Structure formats: structure tokens, C-alpha cells
Amino acid sequence: MSLINSYSQSLPQVSSSTSNTSAVTKSSVQSTTTITGNSFLDSIRLPEESVVPEANDQLLKQEDFFALLSQQLSMQDPFEPVDNDQMIAQMASFSTVDGISNLNEEILNLNTVMSSSQALQASGLVGRKVLIPSDTGAISAESSSMNGVISTPSAIDTISVSVQDATGQVIKTFTVDGSAGGNIDVSWDGLDKDGLPVEEGLYSIKASGKVDGESQDLAVSTYAHVSSVSLGTTATGAILNLRGVGGIKLSDVLAVSET
User: Fold this and answer.
1) Residue pair 35/42 in contact by the 8 Å Cβ criterion
2) Does an H or E element contain 241, and which?
3) What is the pTM of this model?
4) Which of 13, 8, 9, 45 has the alpha carbon at shortest distance from 30?
5) Which residue of 31, 34, 196, 207 could cross-link 218, Cys pair, CB 3.0 to 4.6 Å?
6) What are phi and psi of 160, to 5 degrees?
7) Phi, psi of 232 (to 5 degrees)
8) CA-CA distance, 199 to 221, in Å (whole number)?
9) Across the strands, what pairs with 151?
10) What pLDDT digit, counting tens, does each position of 73-111 carry?
């Protein structure tokens, strides 16, 4: 305390003008500057508040182009004025740029309207089953079986089918007649090899057959129940939310079943 008192006594007297300046300084930065109570120390303290300039998007609008054109006309050489053809060409360029900007805005609005319209149309699929390019389906209390389609490059006498759980363990195996070729319907009743109902969860249907004398894996698509529809984005379009499977784009749907 003695050191502080002796230091305070040795400080020079501060004039009224300095006090007024410090008062103004304190009022301008009081939101971020700590006040010590000493008028001399407060007057020499630098403000801690920094001024952040407003963001500039650096985009030139039509008004900016016309301002540049006006500046060009006002600063031109009177002995060599701007040619009329050049002026008309510049104004035509400005109009073209403005037209392209307006066109982009209209296209964005049109995409938004189309996305909403697509989602409204896709809402008619709620409660129905759609064929998706995936060999995985869901077994639940509402759907205790799985149906799908096996795509074959040619007629195959016998197609071997295996059902696997989420861990890859084989639950059941059976065969399907593929002599018709093309897309072959496949159905699994949801029972394991012992004839007992399997637990709820995700299961995969794998298929293989001999093509030109060699065993080959075949593509399998499965049916899934549509529970709801999401708007999605302009890039993805409407999203179908499938029970137990997840979401899929409407454009990826291969077929729609009757039930």
C-alpha cells in the first residue's frame, strides 16, 4: 500500500482537458475496456475494441456497370470521344449480363417448384412397395417375408439362392428355376433352415448360377415398403423413406408393385 500511495503522489496533475478526453475515451470503449479508476491511466489506455469491416461480396451489379460507364464517359478525351458503336456494344454486354443473372434466378425458382411437385407426386407411393437396386431387405412384424427379382443374362436351369443375416451368416438356401431367363421373381418366407421365423432385422438375398458353364453371381433387387417421402434437395430430388432400409432417391426406383 505504501508503494502505491507514494507512486500516486508523484504523478503529475492532470488538466481538465485531459480528464474530458479520458471521459470520452472511456465512453467509446467501455464495452470492452477495463476501467481502473485512475484518470491518467485510463486516458493513456489503448482501446481494445477492433473495428471489423463489413464483408464485400465483390459482385458487380447492373448499377455498378452503368456507374463505370458514366465514369468512362466523364473521363474520356474530348479530342478522341468514345465511338458510338463501342458504347452500344458495352450497353448490350451489360444487358446480357443482367439477363443471364435474372435467368439464373428463374431457373433456381423453377427447380424449387419442380422438387416440390416431384415430392407431391411421390407421396402417392406411401404405403406401397418399390423395387430397389439392393439385395438387402428388412424383416419386421409388419413384413415377415422378402420378395425380389434376380436378373440373369441368359436362361439358367437352376439358380442357387442363399439368405444371409447382417453378419453374413447363411440362414437358408434354396433353388429357383431360371429357365425363362431375364428377370426371375424370388421370394423368401422369412423362415430359417429349421422352419422357424427369423428375428427382425436386415437380411440379404444372394443368387448365383452357371453362365456359359461357369458359376457367376447374379444381381438381385428387393422390394421395400415406402413409409414416407422427403422433399430432398434440388440435386437429389424426392427421397423415399423405406421401412427398415433407409432413404433412396425416387430416380433410383426400378419398379412399383401393386401392394
Assistant:
1) yes
2) strand 239-242
3) 0.57
4) 45
5) 207
6) -90, 130
7) 75, -155
8) 22
9) 183, 219
10) 777 777 777 666 676 776 677 677 677 777 777 776 676
